[in-house]
């Protein structure tokens, strides 16, 4: 049995315990059952004692540390806490997300992709192990997996309605993508084509704006962005910002353009200076 601390969010008479405590009210809190599956002391470096505990939901670790100090007749309080597992979710279940961020989506196996969708496994399996079991049941075939209903998916231990819906939703997104024709990216082979893309953004403006087109290896436009507005100078147009955006889009070339509200078609000395600065990086 463990008595919840007065700083907990449990309610008594409709009010949270910590709210009652802050109001200066004295509250009698009843002890309630908790389960300590294991408690192992991992290090002793006085005055600190480190321990690893596996316990049931609703156990207050801070109170446990206090109780442990009482039993050791030295007093005690919680100095720091690190959770390595919450319910069926463990530290191992977070690794697939890190791998995706570090190495990209294509680096993940089919099971690892599903593991990210379901988030956690069960008491006997990690999310990846559970995902492998699901894939084995359909011969490791995505098309067969797509035939499973929500109820079929929920037959696997650790797959509730929410996880089953996540899997079904991801499969439906993939199906819709496959059925949809990709958006055709405009290809630039002349300055006139670049002009036609940018003129809607730069026509009849009262102030100067600086725009960049980002191109892939096939000279297709993969992005366009306004970099500055209200005057073109070396302060407002930062080459580092342009190149950072280009790298983020994996662009292999860029096209730079800006307008002259005065209608002047000839490049100014400032324009030439800025162009040189951008060429030098």
Account of the 3D structure:
With about 280 residues, this protein is α+β, with helices and mostly antiparallel strands. It contains eleven helices and nine strands. It has helices at about 15-20, 60-70, 95-105, 110-120, 125-135, 140-145, 150-155, 160-180, 190-200, 240-250, 270-280, and strands spanning about 10, 15, 35-45, 50-55, 85, 90, 210-215, 220-230, 255-260. The longest helix has 19 residues, at about 160-180. It starts with 10 loop residues before the first strand and ends with a helix. The relative contact order is 0.06. GO terms for molecular function: metal ion binding; metallopeptidase activity; pseudouridine synthase activity; RNA binding. Keywords: Hydrolase, Metal-binding, Metalloprotease, Protease, Zinc.
Strands ordered across the widest β-sheet: 8-7-9
Distance between the amino and carboxyl termini: 68 Å
Q: Characterize the largest beta sheet: strand count, sense, and whether it forms a barrel.
A: 3 strands, antiparallel
Strand content: 15-25%
Helix content: 25-40%
The DSSP helix count reads 11
Order of helices and strands: EEHEEHEEHHHHHHHEEHEH
Rounded to the nearest angstrom, the radius of gyration is 30 Å
The number of E-state strands comes to 9
| Count of spatially separate domains | 3
């Amino acid at each position: 049995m463990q008595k919840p601390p007065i700083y907990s969010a449990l309610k008594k008479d409709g009010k949270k315990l910590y709210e009652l405590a802050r109001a200066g009210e004295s509250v009698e809190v009843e002890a309630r059952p908790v389960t300590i599956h294991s408690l192992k002391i991992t290090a002793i470096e006085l005055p600190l004692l480190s321990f690893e505990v596996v316990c049931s939901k609703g156990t207050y670790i801070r109170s446990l540390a206090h109780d442990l100090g009482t039993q050791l007749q030295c007093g005690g309080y919680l100095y720091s806490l690190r959770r390595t597992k919450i319910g069926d979710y463990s530290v191992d279940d977070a690794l697939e997300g890190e791998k995706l961020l570090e190495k990209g989506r294509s680096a993940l196996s089919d099971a690892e992709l599903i593991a990210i969708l379901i988030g956690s496994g069960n008491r006997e399996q990690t999310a990846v192990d559970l995902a492998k079991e699901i894939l084995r049941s359909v011969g490791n075939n995505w098309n067969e997996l797509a035939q499973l209903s929500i109820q079929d998916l929920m037959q696997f231990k650790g797959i509730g309605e929410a996880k089953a819906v996540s899997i079904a939703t991801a499969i439906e997104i993939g199906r819709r993508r496959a059925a949809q024709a990709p958006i055709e990216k405009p290809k630039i082979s002349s300055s006139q084509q670049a002009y036609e893309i940018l003129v809607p953004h730069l026509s009849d403006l009262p102030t100067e704006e600086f725009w960049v087109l980002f191109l892939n290896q096939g000279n297709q436009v993969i992005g366009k962005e306004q970099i500055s507005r209200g005057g073109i100078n070396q302060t407002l147009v930062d080459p580092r910002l342009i190149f950072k955006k280009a790298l983020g889009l994996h662009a292999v070339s860029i096209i730079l353009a800006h307008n002259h509200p005065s209608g002047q078609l000839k490049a100014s000395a400032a324009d030439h200076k800025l162009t040189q600065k951008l060429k030098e990086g």
